[in-house]
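Morning!

As promised:
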Amino acid sequence: MSFPWANHYEPQHPFMRYMDEKLPLPRFIYNAIGGGYPVPRNLNYFWNFGVLSGAALMLQIVTGIVLAMHFAGNSALAFDSVEHIMRDVNSGWLMRYAHANGASMFFIVVYVHIFRGLFYASYKPPREVVWLLGIVIFLLMMATAFMGYVLPWGQMSFWGAKVITGLFGAIPVVGEPIQTWLLGGFSPDNAALNRFFSLHYLLPFVILGVVVLHVWALHLPGSSNPTGVPVKSEEDTVPFHPYYTAKDGFGLGVFLIVFAILVFFAPNFLGEPDNYIKANPMSTPANIVPEWYFWPFYAILRAFTFDFFFVPAKLLGVLAMFASILLLLFLPWIDTSPVRSGHYRPLFRKFFWFGLMPCIIVLGYCGGSHATNGVVLVSQLASVYYFAHFLIILPIVSRIERRCRCRTPSPKACLARLRPHNRGLEKNGSHYRFSGRPVLFGHARLLGHPHRLQYGV
Amino acid sequence: MAAVETDATGAVHEDDGVRRRDFINLAATSFAGVGAVAIVLPLVNQMNPSADVLALASIEVDISKIPVGSAIKTEFRKQPLFVRHLNPDEIKAAEDTKADSLRDPQTLEERTKGKKEWLVTMGVCTHLGCVPLGAGAGELKGEFGGYFCPCHGSHYDTAGRIMKGPAPKNLEVPEYAFASDTVIKVG
Amino acid sequence: MLGYSAIRTGYNMVSDPAAATAEEEFHQHVKSVSFSFEGPTGKYDRAQLQRGLQVYHEVCKACHGLTQVAFRDLADLGYAEGQVKTIAAEYNVPSLNPETGEAETRKGTAADKFPSPFANDIAAKAANNGAVPPDLSLMAKARHGGPEYIYSLLTGYQAQPEELVKKFPDSKTGPGLHYNPYFANLNLAMAPPLPVDDVETDRKAKDVSAFLMWAAEPKLENRHKSGIPALIFLILFTWLTYMSYQVIWADKKKH
């Protein structure tokens, strides 16, 4: 591992020593999520969501494998086979509700995980590849979730499949052949359902593979932390086990409580009633909406209502929707600020909390609503902000912040500069101390008003 | 232990702290273990027969149209079921065979429910599960006039008892009862 | 481009405001009904379900199937095996003649599902002025409001308000249709299945709504029954992991 002070795996039991020689899997685990992986000791609860995402993925894989034992991937049988699971299969209702709500839980924790990355700028070097792999995982998740939603073959399944594959039809010249090829027909039917089932089973394992790469890439530089300042010594870290296994155990407990409330007491709360109606190619539901986790993207898709010169509105919407995710791939290079954590970036933080977050919530609301003119107008304005945030505001903010009074590359150096003005801050060995706490591990509140310290605002 | 108790209070507290910590960690881990088992149970149980499969577990068979000396093949739990209307010769042949000398000793009486002429068995060879011949018209009945399994050559007599070949047991007699003189309820 | 779209949308909103529709103005939100199965510990009222089945049997089954529900499931309603068989035998299910192979019907058995009253959608359409009466198995989950929607619809038939016709002359209830403000587009093909001014109607509507909720979600009680202990277990587990987290971190947090 990347830290010279990391614990070394030393098997005591003869069998474990034998294993270590022949197949060093225990060593691998020890170094990955055991005592051999040093983690910054100042992580807050937002850092729980990576492990929770992994747990949600496993939950989906396990319940999914079980459901596939009873599901029939055939357009004549699929709807009834889901009801067969709900009514006749032992604990089938539990498996299905767990899988359906598990998808929502997966997206909830992954969204928090992504927002953690955005706020604390975890995407910055040296972790840019971790971020890129994360976006790949997110795209794969979206594809998997979409195809999974088609499988019960209800009205929303069918019309969702029709609308989303219709997006490809927007591509000039090759669009329609691609759409027909994707569906294996001119409209979603057995061919589409069967291939979606096959891919829906395959993709989670691809996701699992990319997750391994994601974690691997993370372990080279090690985890970031809320201050954004790289760890310097053993005193800045704790071994993953038992410290973070314990904390993640607690996080998992809270996750499972929320999950259990959904599954046992509100299993259809996040679903659409229309999907309990069997797919009917002859009748479209009054309001086609995707699952809640696609709402913001759906709003961007629908925001383009007018052709722009020779580019049709439909194509613009599709391009914008994909662009809204793909532009995140460039984030490590768009945000040029040397400061990582949002805690120490006052301007960035204002735009994050009062710009980006409300914008995404508004987009989500619009995406789930009936597309009246008012809703479309609001989603257009929110989409403008979304793209402006990343393409205009963020690069400018990154530059302006550097022009602050304190021209130092990191908060720690800045604090060091400010030290003479602040009698509470003193050097103690290798650490700066403020109010008796090591600066490196302080959160914003421990530091008093760090942004003021930071930039002398 | 006495030495510990007379030690400085700080040391005793330290010891209590460790014990409390170990207890909490052990309790948390045990709860995780119990939870894991509670999750695994339904995951395993879902592979058991579902309610619709179990619902088919009992069938009614009209036996009024089976002539003496012939048999019908019907379906019970997705497996063949033989209902055979034995003629007097077949009954006699079965009763003349000494049960004690058989691989799976049973008398015809034990294998029927009061009415010796009605032999109800599963059509599943007890060797490896093939369907024996002998129930359909014109099928081979084997050396003992009952059933013959073509897969590995097991011969059953007119009471469905294994006489020759690799099968270890007699053809299974399922749970059944006469609902009336002409209808049997199987399962 | 987005800005261009936004400006044009905004302009359109001002220059050409969307006209109000009869549905927007006269559609009513479902009535609030209290059912025994609501809430985290809710249970079905067996007697009510049995009465609801009776209503289905007398009123609905002529046009609406219940094809996901098997007769054996009726044991959940508190019927004994013999009673289930009797109920099943009152329905004719499609079958094949074992001798000739021709399509025919036979009496239902416990293992059968409720049959659809029509051989297929075309037959259903032909018999109902072109409208297919939907299957009711999942109706209580397939509409916003669920059982309350069913109750509202059944008790919501009324004469079309005159102001509606005055304001939206095009929305006058057409021939063969019936005005009901709880239905999405206010007019539906189904004639009032329960007599509008009968004292029994309210109770019957409630009973059949509860019955259809059971038909759509027969495992609701299992769900509630396993959910409560699962939640208690998880809260204890979470509390323990929190304690464990605290004691493990105790020495690190002292500084």
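Chain A touches chain C through 53 residues (CB under 8 Å).

Hope this helps with the figure draft.
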